[in-house]
Amino acid sequence: MFSEGPARNGDVALPPQPDATDRKLLRELQRDSQRSVQVLGECVGLSPSACHRRIKVLEESGYIIGYRAELDAILLGFGMQFFIEVELNSQSETALDAFEAAVQDIPEVLECHLMAGQADYILRVVCRDHEDFEHLHRRLSARLPGVARIHSNMSIRRVKARTGLPI
């Protein structure tokens, strides 16, 4: 199942690394997690009960952190996507914490990444149209604490999207 011995990262004990069968199972779950354990087991050469046990261990070890449905943004009316670079007035821990707490309350912000480089944060946001983006931009400027500069880039189209990890 898992390779022997937990790995160490500084003082943090990491869970044991998945073996080859576990990695196959993780790839199959990333591809389609709605298949039955019988079908998944057949894909990776396990009985349904062994497949179920391995999935439970992978979940309990933290390798599987959730299951979700991927929705079509355009069909749901979110035809515009932007990547917004944000620079803050200060990079103190207090300023970063305040910004990160405030961004949690903006539903159009799908992702927020703390960056190393030119911008302090990059946000991925969706909007219905230009007017919706203008309102969002004003809210970001007004509601997010410590913002010094916002630079927005509109996505013309998605060239590649991958939700799974290359395991």
Automatic annotation (TrEMBL):
Matches recorded under CDD domains: HTH_ARSR
Statement: the UniProt record of this protein carries the keyword Signal: no
SMART domains: HTH_ASNC (SM00344)
GO molecular function: sequence-specific DNA binding
InterPro entries cross-referenced by the UniProt entry: ArsR-like_HTH, AsnC-type_HTH_dom, Dimeric_a/b-barrel, Tscrpt_reg_AsnC-like, Tscrpt_reg_AsnC/Lrp_C, WH-like_DNA-bd_sf, WH_DNA-bd_sf
GO cellular component, one term: cytosol
Stretches assigned to the HTH asnC-type domain: 18-79
Pfam families cross-referenced by the UniProt entry: AsnC_trans_reg, HTH_AsnC-type
Keywords: DNA-binding, Transcription, Transcription regulation
UniProt-listed GO biological process terms: regulation of DNA-templated transcription; response to amino acid
Name of the molecule in the record: Lrp/AsnC family transcriptional regulator
Organism: Devosia sediminis
